[in-house]
Amino acid sequence: MQFHHHGYVSTDPRTQDAAGVGIDRPDELPDNVDVLIVGTGPAGMITAAQLSQFPGITTRIVERRGERLAIGQADGIQARSVETFQAFGFAERIIAEAYRITEMAFWKPDPSNPANIIRSARAIDDPTGVSEFPHLIVNQARVLDYFAEVMANSPTRMRPDFGLDFLSLTNSNHGEYPVTVTLVHTTGEKQGQERIVHARYVVGADGAHSAVRDSIGCTPAGDQAFHAWGVMDVLAVTDFPDIRTKCAIQSGTGGSILHIPREGGYLFRMYVDLGDVSPDDDGAVRKTTIDEIIVKANAILHPYTLDVKNVAWHSVYEVAHRLTDRFDDLLPEEINIRSPRVFILGDACHTHSAKAGQGMNVSMQDGFNLGWKLAYVLDGRSPDSLLSTYSAERQVIAKNLIDFDKEWSTLMAMKPEDLKVPLEDFYTQTAEFPAGFMTQYPPSMLIGKATHQSLASGFPIGKRFKSAPVVRVGDANPVQLGHHHRADGRWRVYAFADADRSALADWAEWLRTSADSPLCAHTPTEADIDSVFDIKVVYQQTHTEIDLGQVDEAFLPKTGPFGLIDYEKVYAADPRHHIFEERGISQDGAIVVVRPDQYVAHVLPLTATAELAAYFRQMLLPR
After folding, report:
1. Which helix (H) or strand (E) element contains residue 246?
2. pLDDT tens-digit profile of 125-168?
């Protein structure tokens, strides 16, 4: 965390100075807004949190509830999400309060007595060490609280507008605020009164029954598995020995349980198999009582017993897999004619079972993907064609998610003797997908071709930037390189130095002096030199061999009103975990370009200055 560069700070450094629209922010919802977000779930809140970092953009997020969410349905936080929380500055705090999954136990019928279950296997949760961050369990409501804190501490002082529900919208495609939205007050003295808001862009993060989705004619298509599960968050006394370990439990009497310990040391969640549902059930299974769910859970757990003392929350759901045909308001015949004005995120786009722990995690990546793109267009940094990449990138990811979840939820519902692959083997072999690390965006205006991928093979183009240990030269501190990639809307450009640093020297001079360099061509004249691009250098040598006095000014920018030097952009290889060896970086050096949402956009030689300039010209406007 860096602060004091605008003057001495004696209060919480996470609270930024109010600026732009955050100065005297009105309590009442304005008539005109740049972005109106509908829904304060994880997808909506991360979008709002990203937009809140841009002082010149008026963003408001409305929620039909009258207050914050108290109990959330989602609870699984995959490692990719924790990486994202690090970018927003609250990973350490949420890790401290969460339950951490390090292992999963698998229970099956006892061959000698199938009426009983026995532990048959254990599996390491992250067998390949794909991330330095853990897999967590924590209430969705707490995730929303942390994003709300980021928004409140931002320059825009953003906060949700509770008690407003979405009714309809129309897009005239004309004027400064072309989208007219009709809202209705759901609480207070104005309950029942309608409210009209005009917006440049609208984001629908309003769940599986999204009214925003319906208003733009998007269609969720898919199928229903005709299989039901009861889910309960409970406090109980039990003799089941793995009650504080994540478990997949398959019984011989029919039925399964996915057991997930919760944060706090006592609470746990159970997804209890209620069996197949008749196509003409007409929702009757959803009337299954909590007492019936508990009885079913005890039957599956035999010979162990579960004495439930308190029920925090419970529900019944039928597994369904649906994917929306598009994630914005562009009809096929409008592509390349206009840019989208209305977007949908999260459950409005994709629905599936809860047992793979994907809903909240994938939804947040939807919002992280869209948030910075909206900011760049509204801030005048990028053409509005950038916005079409949201649906193009995220719809493919959602399709992959649906396919994975179909397989996982089907296996969870099968009898052990019918499985072709043991459940524990499938869990281990596919661990990277649910953890969030299989996403790879294809070449586009944002994602470069893999022509030079061999220069940095450990940073696959289109995949998230996988952090690695380095040593910060200025203070000799060992740090994770990726942990300094904040959700502040900036691009990261990592210059991995060549062995004798000669190519690096030429590249740094070009970056500082050439009118074609992205630093010169796309940084506003009145802004700090690192306001758009966060340029970092990583040397092959150890930190003791690097003299800060000889480091090019490109990596020691002067920022803030006092022109103070930022010393946290110069790194050296950690000899214990040499980043050049661990990430397959060429001894000739490389440039690795990383998007604001942490995905590797391009890999280039240090000598490919013209190619780097051309890459940024296609998506960024001149200053």
Report:
1. strand 246-250
2. 887 778 899 999 999 999 999 999 999 999 999 999 999 999 99
